[in-house]
Amino acid sequence: MLKCLKAILFLALLCGVVSISEAGTIAVGSVSGSPGETILVPVNIDSIAGQTSCNISVVFDSNRLKFLGRENGNIGAGIMGPKLADINKRGKYNPIISFMGEAKGGTIMYLKFAVREGAKGDVPLTLTVPTPAGVYNAVSGKIMVR
Amino acid sequence: MRKMKSLMPIILLSILLVTGMASAATLTPVGTCNGQNKVNIALDVDDATGIITFDITVTGTGLTTTIADVSKTGSIAANWMTYTASAVTGGVRILAAGGTGSGTTGAGNLGTITFTATDGTVDTETVSVAVNTVTPGITLTPAAYTPVVCNVCSEWTDVITKYNAYVAGTAAWADVIACYNAYVAAP
């Protein structure tokens, strides 16, 4: 009986390890910039974790930053996002990303921001991954205004 | 004159019978969009005169709802003393009884239920109403539901809703793309 329990516990542990290793991490970079300057902030992923798509959300202070658009990364992701006016009005960029082919990890895209005149301090770029829930670890970034 | 007097009780009885006779009314589920993926169904009756209690079942095809989505609102619904809902497959069963409801007259609605489209977009889904019992002996006939289309996709949240339906397996990727294209084309 005890042996059986141990075996079950071992299997459960093994499964736990496997599920942890299957999780991916999406991270927004931290970059420095001056008022008036245009900067690119990378959004990286270390593993697509078996998913074909996801929805991420990057919240920023639209009084200090202006979102100008995005540039492609190196994993060939397909990206659908809200209109620029909507993004800057809400201070939130929450695109749907589809992973093409066998993408493992790399840069999904670069977020292009302009630092507004008079902006000071660190501006957080708060990342969440609403969908799929619980699959990715989200690491936020920031823009450090010089 | 004497003959008239002898007929009086019969005339009075006839008047009483006519006024107290069971009447007939129509119950129509009327849908209005509540965003892209939700529809509010108002249970409209054309004449609630005489209804003291009612027991109806409302179900949706391609739609889901919960007991919490049943709203006791509207000119008639607010009058019933007890108003409870229970879950049934694809919908809810609503029972209302007593109180000031017995004095209700005229047209209005028996309440409103919010349904959610399982594929993320309200368009061709249907709602049906079954009348289990109505007292006192009133004929309440359900009318057909006219589907409403809420597939506007004019806001980014509509696209996200459609995407979430895709992830949940209730919408196709092509639907997400179509919704996105509609959003992009919207002014």
Structural notes for this entry:
The model of chain A is unreliable at 8-21 (pLDDT under 50). In chain A, strands 2, 4, 6, 7, 8, 10 and 12 form a 7-stranded mixed β-sheet that branches. A 5-stranded mixed β-sheet of chain A has the order 5-9-3-1-11. Chain A has 146 residues and is α+β, with helices and mostly antiparallel strands. Chain A has helices at 2-22, 84-90; strands spanning 24-28, 30-33, 38-45, 53-59, 65-72, 78-80, 92-93, 96-98, 106-115, 122-131, 136-139, 141-145. Chain A starts with a helix and ends with a strand. Helices cover 19% and strands 47% of the residues of chain A. Chain B has helices at residues 2-20, 156-167, 173-185, and strands at 24-33, 38-45, 53-61, 63-64, 70-71, 82-88, 91-97, 108-117, 126-135, 139-142. The model of chain B is unreliable at 11-22 (pLDDT under 50). In chain B, the strands form 2 sheets. In chain B, strands 1, 2, 4, 5, 8 and 10 form a 6-stranded mixed β-sheet that branches. In chain B, strands 6-7-3-9 form a 4-stranded antiparallel β-sheet, with no helix packed on it. In chain B, helix 2 packs antiparallel against helix 3 (173-185). In chain B, 24% of the residues lie in helices and 37% in strands. In chain B, 34% of the residues are buried. Chain B is of the alpha+beta class and 187 residues long. Classes of the chains: A alpha+beta (146), B alpha+beta (187). Chain A binds chain B through residues 53, 55, 80, 82-83, 86, 94, 96, 131-132, and chain B through 156, 159-160, 163-164, 167, 176, 180, 184.
Main beta-sheet strand count, sense and barrel state of chain B: 6 strands, mixed
How does the major sheet of chain A shape up? 7 strands, mixed
How much strand of chain A?
A: over 45%
Termini gap of chain A:
65 Å
Give the mean pLDDT of chain B: 85
Number of helices of chain B: 3
Mean pLDDT reading of chain A: 87
- Name the shape of chain B in a single word: elongated
The shape of chain A, in one word, is elongated
| Approximate helicity band of chain A | 10-25%
Q: Oligomeric state of the chains?
A: heterodimer
